[in-house]
Design brief:
The protein has 136 residues and is of the alpha+beta class. The protein has helices at residues 5-10, 55-76, 122-133; strands spanning 18-21, 25-29, 39-43, 80-84, 99-105. Strands 1-2-3-5-4 form a five-stranded antiparallel sheet, covered by helices on one side. A hairpin with a 3-residue loop joins β1 and β2 (25-29). The chain is globular, with a radius of gyration of 17 Å. The chain binds zinc ion (ZN). Zinc ion binds next to α1. Zinc ion binds at residues 1, 4, 6-7, 46, 97.
């Protein structure tokens, strides 16, 4: 897409600090650096979100994410690592080109995620699972 900032990064039209690249993905340092070592893994061929990925892209993102996570552990020695990926504005997506955040974490680093659990009864879980299985 001509007006997509991540497509421009992939094409080298906007500079980035890259850490990894393969046939399907490019990984580069997030300009915001929530914590040192914060990396983004983006697909090369434009896909707005997870729903638009093909199987090869999805597999490549998983492989690259695990590889880079291991490198981040060695390079920065974080106490933890968060993987963030948002699809659509209500989910918090701000750049509409599929990407995954790999974010080294430390106790008290100020990063928070609200997780408002609902704890529905088992029959509700079965109902939800049935809806998913019906369309897989
Ligand atoms: Zn794009």
């Amino acid at each position: 897409m001509t007006d997509c900032v991540f497509c421009k990064i992939v094409a080298g039209q906007i500079p980035s600090t890259r850490v990894y690249e393969d046939e399907h993905v490019v990984a580069f340092m997030d300009l915001g650096q929530v914590n040192p070592g914060h990396v983004l893994v983006a697909v090369k061929k434009h896909a707005a979100n997870l729903f638009e990925l093909d199987d090869a892209q999805a597999a490549a993102v998983g492989r690259a994410g695990a590889k880079i996570a291991r490198a981040l552990k060695k390079a920065f020695g974080p106490e933890g690592l968060s993987v963030y990926q948002a699809n659509g504005k209500p989910a918090g997506q701000t750049v509409f080109h599929y990407h995954v955040h790999l974010l080294p974490r430390h106790e008290g680093d100020g990063m928070e995620l609200t997780w408002p659990v609902k704890n529905p009864p088992r029959d509700k879980l079965e109902e939800y699972a049935g809806k998913i299985r019906a369309v897989l």
